Amino acid sequence: MPTTTIPRRAPALRSTLHAALAGVALALSATAVAVAPHAAGAPSAFPPKTEVHRPLESRPARRPWVLCAVFPHIKDAYWLGVNFGMIDEARRLAVDVRFLEAGGYPNLERQRDHIRSCAADPEVNALIVGTVSFEGLSPLLQEVSQRIPVLAAVNDIADAGVAAKVGVNWYDMGRAAGDYLAKQAASARGPVPIAWFPGPQGAGWVPFVDRGFRDAIAGSGIVVAATAWGDTSKTVQRNLVQKTLDAQPGVRYLVGNALMAEAAVSVLRERGLQNRVGIVSTYFTPAVHRGIVRGRILAAPTDAPVLQGRLSIAQAVALLEQRPVARHLGPAVRIVDRSSLQRIDLGDSLPPNLFTPQFRYQPPPKR
What we know:
The structure is a single chain. The protein has 367 residues and is α/β, with parallel strands linked by helices. The chain has two domains: 66-167 and 304-330 and 353-361, Response regulator (Rossmann fold), CATH 3.40.50.2300; 170-302, Rossmann fold (3-Layer(aba) Sandwich), CATH 3.40.50.2300. 31% of the residues lie in helices and 18% in strands. The protein is built from nine helices and 16 strands. Strands 3-1-2-14-8-7-6-4-5-16 form a ten-stranded mixed β-sheet, with helices on both faces. It has a four-stranded parallel β-sheet with strand order 10-9-11-12, with helices on both faces. Strands 13-15 form a two-stranded antiparallel sheet. Helix 1 (77-93) links the parallel strand 4 and strand 5.
């Protein structure tokens, strides 16, 4: 059957792909990629079939397509990684990509305005949405999809009006963090109290993380002593960590979003608790990576946000050029801890150290 092939930017290597559906030729890193049925929000992972492929040589797009990418924000390293991946792939394919960001998950109306702006621009050929809401954009996206293709990136979204998706099941991200924690706590005598920081309560991805995590720890000795919801800004998460430690001084682990994990490192150090309270993140960022290297953060699952950015651009171009395209695909979820660091391709997860947010990539004119 047709298969998904992922070309490498470096010398060609054999790559392991997880394929459960007919695939597409996408030019990206030789990292494990899961190709799944186009089903939104399914609580369980699709069954993968492992195949081995040799990456193909990449080629530019047939024309300099103009893509408009709408993000929730680019204020943390996760979305910065997606931004870098999209810019990197747009440069490789010689297409134009423009970015608009809503400034945070509470700003649904601002994201709607950005989508209208993209849709009204006659130069834009396709819209890529990293949504702030699972269903809040559906009527608008259905309208936009009458003129240009609409694709979803990273955050899951209702299917209405959406031609294709790149992303992982965030249930699996929460479950991976919970499974790791359950193993850590398996030898403990008695209950293990933890504090849980899922993220913004209204964001579409958070309920899946929450459900996956809670399913993973069910039946273990882990007890959620406190749950603190909040926007993924470091200031908000730092305040939540401090208030939670004041109210629940006996917690053994702080578990949740990456901005919480980043903030918790310094909070625990200030309180002299770094050797008594462990930290587990539900996703992977440069600061979480540093924390793992230094032994301050235990682990985090990675969904390779840089690779997701590349996949989104390649998927959009394939759709515009009417080539075979997988309607839903995303990287395989992997746990990163000190023991697995050498086996992880960090370039698929982390942007370069000096990369700053970019809001436009325009290919140079052909000579």
